[in-house]
Write the structure tokens for this entry.
Amino acid sequence: MARFHTEGEISLDPIEGRKVAIIGYGNQGHAHALNLRDGGYDVVVGLRNNSPREQLATEAGLKVNTPALAAKEADWIMLCVPDQTMATVFEDIRHELTEDKTLLFAHGFAVVFNQIQDLPAIDIILVGPKGSGRTLRNEFLLKRGLASLVAVHQDVTGTALDKALAYAKAIGCAAGRCLETTFREETVTDLFGEQVVLCGGIPELLKAGYDTLVEAGYSPETAFFECIHEAKLITDLIYESGVAGMRKAISDTAAYGGLISGSKLIDTKSRETMREILADIESGTFANKWVRASATTTLGDLKVEEAKHGAEDVGAELRAHMPFLPS
């Protein structure tokens, strides 16, 4: 049974008086750095020379140094850089990871799939907020919470878990509960969820539904509203009260139609494909493929190709008539 840690039981003592280096200032890094700074902690951001993000961090009032120098002056070092560049950045700071340091990750990819090897004998922990950096930052400013996963890879001092929990609380995650897991479980389930459901399955389902209606002669605008725009309504309901709660909140017609049709789409073959994707993740096949692809223009090409889908232009046109959407 998974173990949750609540805000009241988590002590900030392990992080008090510690200087924290946030290596990277992207999606996650900016939120970690700003939340820690606003919480009264001593923070330095590590960025490579001529990084386009240096100006953003500096304008936010944060101290910026190279990754190596940031790691050298800090007690705790959190790596918030993309998976495909993690190994290179790690080599920049390796010699600064002395026995009195603590190394943190926001995602376990590089450790689990051996992108980083010969790890030093220090506490190595993971704190993975369950949401984007923007969400983490917004929830902190609203004095609410965002759930996170915490894990320990190496516990040299005997206090590694306490350190992970303290860091999670310091960046604003404890109010949303901290779920104790392992590096491997966090990494495999995260990749699987992204590929099969969140970033793979859902977008493909939305586009396929849109295409089916348009090919049948229905207007692109109506198809967009019914198959793409209203997806937020359903996901919000599921977020708030689960699938069963969503069924109760929608019309009986929608509930019945969904219940009898969903299993036709996600059938035995679909589930077998999911198991194949999971096996590729678990074996490291996906990780190796991604690291190779990241050295080419593969990802950029895939993004450009998807952006040509007809629903993109229709969606942009419709959103222009929705002043209530965030800019």
Observations:
- The two ends are 42 Å apart (CA to CA).
- The chain has a mean pLDDT of 95.
- The first helix runs from residue 29 to 38.
